[in-house]
Structure formats: C-alpha cells, structure tokens
Write a structure and sequence with these properties.
197 residues; alpha+beta; 28% strand; tt1808, chain A; 24% helix; four-stranded mixed sheet; single chain
C-alpha cells in the first residue's frame, strides 16, 4: 500500500476494502492518506499518543452516558464512514469519535452518509489535516457539528452548520465545565473532566 500512496491514482471504497486491516488509511476525493500522518505513508501503522487516547475515551464515556435511552449511537475509530457512497464512493474517513442519529445510515461495515457529530482529537502529525482537509470535507458533506479537540492547549473548537452549508465556530477551554453539543438536546460535555485525565 505504501507504493500506492506515491502514485497519482484515484481510489474508491472498493479499493479500501482490499487493504490490510492493520494499516490505517483514509480516502478523500480519491486520494489516499495515512490516518495518523496524512502526508507520510511510512506512518500508516502508527498509534496515537496517550493524551489523544485519554481524551477519546473520556469523550466516549460522556457521550455514552448521555445517549442511554436515546436512538443515537456513538462510535470511535476505527469505524469507516463513507461520506459520498451514493456518488463516486471515493471518500472514506475514520473519525476519532462520531454520533449517528439516523439508524438507516449504519450498516455492518460502518456508516454510510454524514454523521450528525464528529470529533477529531489533534495529534502533532494530523493537526493540519484535521483543521483544513477534514474541516472542508465535513462542512461540504453536511456533518452538522464538528469538534476539533486540542489536548495540548486544552481547547475545543466546535463548528456547527448555520442552517446551510457554512460552519460557525465557538471555542471553549478546560475552564468551561459544560460545553453544549448543538445537535443533541440538553447534552453537555464537561471539559474539565475530559482534560483533567
């Protein structure tokens, strides 16, 4: 697969399904990226740092507690999300955490269509990719709320679609004990808990 990344080929979900499961790849508009170092294929098997995983686990725990008795489901990577499966099927991402409220979007292989909520937790190797490439992708794909979580700065930038196709940003830090999740009624995430650990 590393050699394939150097080629100018375009890839689809069908190609993605043939790649080794122990390597972490995403496809955006037919271009292949390593999950943990999108601009360097040698990191395809890399694992995230402890602060990244700690934040993902805490987010999962808080969402899981809130969603008890609700129809929405929360998932963490690796779960394949096919953002344009009905068209070219050339975009597959594995967000760190996602929430899906429309059960018809969930199938045995992952999620088909835009989740309601996505959180990406920054790592040094993926910060630019999450802030630019994925931001633009999630906005145009109709992901209603996108959080960029920075464990080093202890901040969350929450982007919410403004009823159309543009994100509106709000930034919170670890002193904000109850940060609202705009797409889930009365749901808040405690950042002091999330960043304390």
């Amino acid at each position: 697969m590393q050699a394939a990344l150097r080629k100018e080929n375009r890839y689809t979900y069908a190609d993605y399904c043939t790649w080794p499961e122990d390597e972490r790849w995403e496809i955006i508009d037919g271009v292949v990226y390593s999950k943990y170092a999108p601009y360097d294929a040698t990191y395809a098997k890399a694992t995230p740092v402890i602060s990244h995983q700690t934040v993902v686990v805490e987010l999962l725990w808080q969402f899981k507690n809130y969603l008890k008795g609700h129809k929405c489901k929360v998932f963490i990577a690796p779960v394949s999300v096919r953002l344009n499966a009905d068209a070219e099927d050339n975009t597959v991402v594995e967000p760190d955490l996602l929430v899906v409220c429309d059960e018809s979007k969930i199938d045995i292989k992952g999620v088909v269509g835009a989740p309601d909520f996505i959180a990406e937790v920054l790592s040094p190797s993926t910060a630019r990719y999450d802030k630019i490439t994925k931001y633009n992708l999630y906005q145009r794909s109709g992901v209603r709320e996108y959080w960029i979580v920075d464990p080093d700065r202890k901040t969350v930038t929450a982007y919410t679609l403004d009823g159309g196709s543009n994100y509106v940003a709000n930034t919170y830090n670890n002193r904000d004990a109850a940060v609202p999740v705009g797409v889930l009624e009365n749901c808040t995430i405690d950042l002091t808990e999330m960043f304390e650990s």
